[in-house]
Design brief:
Length: 594
């Protein structure tokens, strides 16, 4: 790509862009939601024409693009679409990809879901095996097993590929170079995604230092202009013009987009016991979802549900929330629960509504008599101001929801979710389409959230960073509770899946499973004992900060609401610290007794 420029109405998306993809390249394409990643990929694929510039593909080389919303007109089944363009002797490739990606080639196009269509488009690309594959969020709508299959296939291919994904583990395993789109510029680093964040932070630090030097120079020149220009008007017009040029340079600098100013506050505390399930069993015909399933969820737990698509994760979740009846067993919900749900299907968003109406039309967010305000955790806010906290600009406020990218729809749904008071969050695939920075912020918010979280996700890195308990649903009614996140589950399971996962993480020592822990503790108890000192230290640090805040004698009269919240937070953390210390003592005694 040489001298590529592209403008959509306003500011240029790209200007004089030069880019080369070499044979065998394994490239991560990264950038904020809305930065132009998908647009650049469509330009590379020839689906969007640039205003200026040239794209050269050497003779005999092919480029293939995985469409986000593939057009399947004229095809009866998904298999017909995926096999189009292949020679008769190559049809087995579609069947093989169909098995790995878990889509049914015989499924009629008109009855296929969006996820099934995307899996068919990915299977078509994998079967065609072009010299350069352009993959835009290929892991969306794939379960963990299908992601692992795709990871193995891409790891073994000799083709080049450019990859957009929110899945850190996927990017780390597969990429050897990184393209970073930032404010219309594209930078390349010959290092995979593993080194991206350190590189990005270094670039931004250098940029901030240059901006600081420029501001200092402008201040010095402006002071000279005020103090000395009248005495030396004719002789120093060049210096005045230089000052104007410096100011123009500063004005031309494109401001970095900040992080979404998301905040998540728990409502009134729920009871200590949130959900208690005993002997749950559920089946549909010959398919058994769970049998003999027991679970205790306590306040503050982060419980993840993992397993293949269709295994029954959402069904079990609904049973635990009392929304679906079990065939056998009982579920008891705790007291004072306020539940907020992040919906995987984005069903809470009407595509024809504007962003403005989507928020102001929500009964739980409506402010009586104020058409331009929304209620955010009990406080009225202007709707545009609240949308800006989630990185939407003024023009987008009146745009239709259907005009948003996948990541922007996810952010709008988070805006609706976070406006409401809750103490039990249910997050069904929240990571789909979100950029890396927003995922980081979401993880931090969940870390600080005082309520309880139930999470369904196929994002292994996110599971590791958030989950304290993992429920693995493995089919045939098996649902097993493990301590920790995805890596902890793999280490404890210790079978072929674990071996496959560990191969992609050579630096991490394998955990050898003991049939009878020598310490007298179960594996889960041993894991908990190892984690408790860190948890105790964190609580002690939080208590110290709160006590320092409350030591201000004027705080009560100056900010009574802040004083009250700090008091409540201090009491709660002291209770948590006491409980954690008691738990540590009990486990330590049990370990010594064993």
């Amino acid at each position: 790509m040489s001298g590529i420029s592209l403008t959509f109405g306003g500011d240029p998306v790209f200007s004089d862009l030069d880019l080369v993809v070499q044979p065998g390249d394994r490239v991560a394409l990264v950038g904020r939601n809305g930065s132009g990643k998908s647009t650049l990929m469509k330009v590379m694929a020839g689906l969007v024409e640039a205003d200026r510039g040239e794209i050269v593909v050497p003779p005999g080389k092919s480029v293939g693009y995985m469409e986000q919303d593939p057009g399947m007109q004229g095809f009866a089944t998904l298999g017909d679409y995926a096999a189009s363009g292949l020679e008769p002797g190559e049809l087995y490739k579609v069947e093989r990809a169909g098995e790995g990606l878990k889509f049914d080639p015989s499924r009629a196009v008109e009855t296929a879901s969006g996820g099934e269509r995307r899996r068919a488009a990915l299977a078509k690309l994998m079967a065609e095996a072009p010299d350069l594959m352009l993959l835009d969020e290929p892991t969306n709508h794939l379960d963990i097993e299908a992601i692992a299959w795709l990871e193995r296939e891409l790891g073994a291919t000799r083709a080049a590929y450019v990859l957009i994904s929110h899945d850190r583990a996927f990017l780390r395993a597969l990429t050897r170079a990184t393209l970073w789109i930032d404010r219309g510029a594209v930078r390349r680093q010959e290092q995979g995604f593993e080194g991206f964040e350190a590189w990005r932070d270094k670039v931004w630090d250098e940029e901030d230092q240059q901006r600081h030097k420029l501001n200092r120079k402008i201040k010095a020149e402006a002071r000279w202009a005020v103090e000395g220009i009248s005495a030396r008007r004719k002789r120093n017009q060049g210096r005045v013009r230089a000052l104007q040029a410096l100011r123009a340079e500063r004005a031309a600098q494109i401001k970095r987009q900040g992080s979404a100013a998301m905040s998540l506050e728990a409502g009134p505390k729920s009871g200590r016991k949130v959900i208690e399930a005993h002997g749950l069993a559920k089946g549909f015909g010959d398919k058994q979802i769970v049998r003999g399933f027991d679970l205790l969820v306590q306040r503050g737990d982060r419980v993840a549900f993992v397993g293949p698509n269709g295994v029954g994760k959402t069904t079990l979740l609904k049973m635990l929330l009392g929304q679906e009846a079990a065939d056998q067993g009982s579920v008891t919900l705790g007291t004072n629960l306020e539940i907020a749900v992040f919906d995987q299907a984005r069903a809470q968003l009407d595509p024809e509504m504007t962003l403005w109406d989507s928020l102001t039309g929500d009964p739980e967010m409506r402010v009586s008599g104020k058409a331009d305000q929304v209620m955010v955790r009990g406080q009225p806010k202007h709707v545009v101001g609240y949308l800006k906290e989630f990185l939407f600009d003024d023009a987008q406020a009146r745009a239709a929801v259907k005009s948003l990218s996948g990541g922007e729809k996810a952010r709008l749904l988070l805006a609706k979710l976070m406006a409401k008071s809750s103490n039990l969050l249910v997050l069904d695939e929240p990571t789909n389409d979100l950029d890396v920075e927003t995922l980081d912020l979401l993880q931090e918010l969940l870390d600080d959230y005082d309520g309880t979280v139930l999470l369904v996700s196929h994002d292994r890195d996110f599971l590791d960073r958030v989950a304290t308990t993992t429920i693995a649903m493995e089919g045939n009614g098996r649902a097993t509770v493990y301590a920790g996140g995805w890596s902890d589950y793999i280490a404890q399971r210790g079978d072929e899946i674990g071996k496959t996962e560990e191969k992609s993480k050579p630096s991490k020592p394998k955990v050898k499973q003991e049939s009878k822990p020598k310490s007298g503790l179960s594996f889960s108890e041993k894991h908990r004992l190892e984690k408790l000192p860190t948890e105790i230290a964190r609580l002690e640090a939080e208590i110290a900060k709160l006590e320092e805040l409350m030591s201000d004698p004027e705080l009560f009269t100056r900010e009574p609401v802040k004083f009250q919240k700090a008091t409540e937070a201090l009491v709660e953390r002291q209770e948590k610290l006491s409980a954690a210390e008691e738990e540590w003592l009990l486990l330590e005694e049990k370990a010594e007794g064993g």
